[in-house]
């Protein structure tokens, strides 16, 4: 039964609720009720102030009906509240995601938890430099300065875990078991009258068939098809006929430019190509030893068919044709002279990239790879020569970031990626050895920036377990940029190359620098001073060890 609240309010002060017009029966009429009609407005006094009731509320006397109304009211409010919270949450999530992406967050965080960004690319290209770009004045971001003490603790933890332990070198039989096909193709002896490692291989293919039809480099790379089209045309002219059999000259490189990315190897490659006694593979960076022989084009694309060693050897056919012409010349045949043309290969991943081992070699010890790239190269070419170009690892990392980051590049974004990468690296060294972390595929792909590439001494020490020190030439990009003529003379002497005319030398040393920083990256300016300080602390113990190994304090990079 419904009650008139006005009536109740009017009568309740005198405790005469039973006299309420509505309470006395169902015939109560709001139009006839003097209170409901407003003839006698009931003033309500609260704290000595008069307040008029402007609304008429209806209340149910039945308890069930009363509670139903209450719940309806509460349910409506609850729905409104939930809807509002959902809208607010969506707005906040959108703000955080877009703000973090574009650097718009009010309080930038030095750490990003959650899904890790994988490396955008695995192909390495190097820059001679952009040396001047790093020393422009930059704004100090106060919020990032506050990050330093926390990140310094992470670096101190990493430093405390650093141990340079000599690795156990695998024996030759173990290597044969891992790569039996490679050992069946490459001989253990080469032609004595050639400075470059070459040998004759019987060609068993059909003389009407395409000799490069199955070459993976030709199949997967459109830009190399022009090279292979030319090789097809001249291939038959270079077959050597002996006792009704056809032979082709096969060659491996005499020297390798093995690293590091963004340290000027492209410029060194371009200058060495100009020397009359130097040839290179048809492709500057085949990445065969580190990736293609495992079927890796890009790790993010998964695995393809493995590139056989024959596909790699095909890349040296152009140079082999020229060496063959020298070997068949009268000077070599009659006067006992030897071929002095040498071949080089310049994949900047060769020194450091052993990420594929985990997918193929399962007999590891505590996460360390049982076999490294250098083990196999040394097995076939114990006399190979290796050239390494290095650069201040702090500047190398920033250059690497600018080259590979696809969008939203900034000094602040670089700082956050460095902080996240340091956290990940710390987590690894707490549980595993330094070598295991450096060659850890999962970690290396999880880190937003490639910190591990700048740990030069870790890789160099592993190369020195199989090659002698006099077989490795280590250069600095800073020296190459300031005195090009001096560094090129060091390379010529190391490779035992013949003398050059003044014109030839000028052509090699005065050519413009190759692969310099892109204009759009130059406008971003240098990294934040705080980021530089953090990276200096991180790389310091590794640079110190490197300077000790090479007996050269220039590799401390104190002046850069």
UniProtKB/TrEMBL annotation:
InterPro entries in alphabetical order: CS_Sulfotransferase, P-loop_NTPase, Sulfotransferase_dom
Domain called Sulfotransferase: residue spans: 253-517
E.C. number: 2.8.2.-
GO BP term (any one): hexose biosynthetic process
Keywords: Membrane, Transferase, Transmembrane, Transmembrane helix
A Pfam family of this chain: Sulfotransfer_1
GO molecular function: N-acetylgalactosamine 4-sulfate 6-O-sulfotransferase activity
Regions crossing the membrane: 78-97
Database matches in Gene3D superfamilies: P-loop containing nucleotide triphosphate hydrolases
Alphabetized PANTHER family for the sequence: CARBOHYDRATE SULFOTRANSFERASE 15
Family: Belongs to the sulfotransferase 1 family.
Protein name: Sulfotransferase
Species of provenance: Agelaius phoeniceus
């Amino acid at each position: 039964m419904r009650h008139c609240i006005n009536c109740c309010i009017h009568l309740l002060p005198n405790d005469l609720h039973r006299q309420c017009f509505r309470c006395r029966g169902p015939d109560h009429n709001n139009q006839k009720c003097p209170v409901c009609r407003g003839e006698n407005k009931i003033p309500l006094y609260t704290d000595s102030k008069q307040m008029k009731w402007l609304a008429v509320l209806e209340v149910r006397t039945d308890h069930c009906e009363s509670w139903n109304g209450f719940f309806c009211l509460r349910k409506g409010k609850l729905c409104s509240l939930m809807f509002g919270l959902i809208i607010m949450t969506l707005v906040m999530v959108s703000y955080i995601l877009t703000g973090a992406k574009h650097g718009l967050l009010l309080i930038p965080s030095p750490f990003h938890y959650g899904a890790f960004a994988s490396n955008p690319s695995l192909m390495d290209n190097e820059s001679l430099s952009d040396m001047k770009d790093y020393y422009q004045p930059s704004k100090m971001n106060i919020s990032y300065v506050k990050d330093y003490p926390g990140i310094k603790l992470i670096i101190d933890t990493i430093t405390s875990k650093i141990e340079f332990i000599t690795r156990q070198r695998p024996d030759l039989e173990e290597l044969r078991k891992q790569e039996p096909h490679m050992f069946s193709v490459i001989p253990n002896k080469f032609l004595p009258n050639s400075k470059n490692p070459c040998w004759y291989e019987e060609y068993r293919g059909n003389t009407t068939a395409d000799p490069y039809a199955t070459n993976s480099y030709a199949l997967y790379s459109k830009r190399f098809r022009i090279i292979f089209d030319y090789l097809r045309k001249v291939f038959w002219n270079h077959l050597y006929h002996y006792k009704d059999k056809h032979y082709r000259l096969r060659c491996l490189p005499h020297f390798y430019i093995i690293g590091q990315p963004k340290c000027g190897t492209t410029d060194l490659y371009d200058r060495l190509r100009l020397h009359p006694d130097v040839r290179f593979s048809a492709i500057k960076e085949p990445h065969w030893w580190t990736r293609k022989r495992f079927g890796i084009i890009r790790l993010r694309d998964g695995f393809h068919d493995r590139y056989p060693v024959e596909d790699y050897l095909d890349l040296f056919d152009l140079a082999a044709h020229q060496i063959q012409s020298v070997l068949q010349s009268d000077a070599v045949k009659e006067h006992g002279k030897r071929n002095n043309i040498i071949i080089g290969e310049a994949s900047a991943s060769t020194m450091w990239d052993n990420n594929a081992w985990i997918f193929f070699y399962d007999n590891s010890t505590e996460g360390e790879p049982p076999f490294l790239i250098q083990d196999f190269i040394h097995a076939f070419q114990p006399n190979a020569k290796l050239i390494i170009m290095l650069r201040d690892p702090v500047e190398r990392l920033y250059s690497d970031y600018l080259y590979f980051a696809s969008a939203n590049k900034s000094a602040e974004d670089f700082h956050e990626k460095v902080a996240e990468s340091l956290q990940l690296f710390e987590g690894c060294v707490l549980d595993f050895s330094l070598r295991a972390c450096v060659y850890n595929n999962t970690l290396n792909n999880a880190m937003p920036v490639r910190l591990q590439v700048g740990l030069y001494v870790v890789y160099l020490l592993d190369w020195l377990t199989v090659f002698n020190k006099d077989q490795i030439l280590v250069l600095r990009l800073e020296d190459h940029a300031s005195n090009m003529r001096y560094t090129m003379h060091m390379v010529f002497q190391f490779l035992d190359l013949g003398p050059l005319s003044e014109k030839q030398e000028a052509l090699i040393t005065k050519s413009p620098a190759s692969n310099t920083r892109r204009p759009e990256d130059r406008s971003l300016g240098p990294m934040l001073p705080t980021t530089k300080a953090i990276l200096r602390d991180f790389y310091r113990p590794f640079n110190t060890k490197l300077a000790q190994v090479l007996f050269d304090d220039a590799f401390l990079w104190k002046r850069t």
